[in-house]
What does this fold into?
Amino acid sequence: MPLPKAELHLHIEGTLEPELAFALAERNGVTLPYATTEELREAYRFSDLQSFLDLYYALMAVLRTPEDFTALADAYLERAAAQGVRHAEIFFDPQAHTARGVSMGTVVEGLAAALDRAEERYGISTRLIMCFLRDESAASALATLEAAKPYLDRITGVGLDSAEVGHPPAKFREVYEEAARLGLRRVAHAGEEGPAEYVREALDVLGVERIDHGLRCMEDPELVERLARERVPLTLCPLSNVRLRVIDELGRHPLREMLDAGLLVTVNSDDPAYFGGYVGDNYAAVREALSLSQEQVRVLARHSFEAAFLDDDEPRRARYLAEVETYTF
Ligand code: HPA
Ligand code: ZN
It folds into this structure.
């Protein structure tokens, strides 16, 4: 049995495997610029975040109906369950769909259909987090939040993703203020390719409760001290960092130093169909590359439940944490 864990940094569009992409392309009469799944996989050699995002947005063209989003989420949940995921907080990118004529309702209702039966089918509790594309305007983010209002009973929080450099968190101050007024939880990608200063800004200007990635905080000792003191969770994605060349190789990932600095770090998969592994694969890879002890791996799983948005169901969090404590490797 795999170690029980929560996954807190997972873009549902990043779980689109080539086989499902081709099946949906056929079903929807969409032509992909690749003849075979092998040819498509060849395109998965990225030089940076943008080169990945170009392919990630292009492949979304196959997602058109609520059933497509249901199939996408079902495929993820099944794989996640097999790797010990007990709770998943799932990002989606509404603007990447509404911009091509697929409505907010299609996306949310499609995903929700899979999430509604996730507990029964896969033993996974779920939350949905809607991300704004930071390379789009603040006005577009506000319009997206407005379009989401009929679906807020299904949406736990908001996040911020896509091309980071040149798009500082402060650009989205207003939409995060509105999200807070609506009672939504707030997270943001920061310090992946962007500087440590973006991490500080996400905390101070956007009021986020968790930082997605946050790796580059390590360049700022004062910030590290603050993140540790305030117990701000960081959702690391080690295989993503290697594939997007945020780090040279897994053996040089700062995760161990981050644990030693007392940071509340978690391990996640980001876009597993693109980066060579689901969350259990990420745990296994860092354990091996960084020679982590069993107890350090247990700490990572404990952190994942501590950092989860389960405040409305503390008995569940306690059950999950008990599973982690009694797990035998
Ligand atoms: N970073 C920024 N935006 C993203 C990512 C990421 O790792 N994955 C999907 N959108
Ligand atoms: Zn991400």
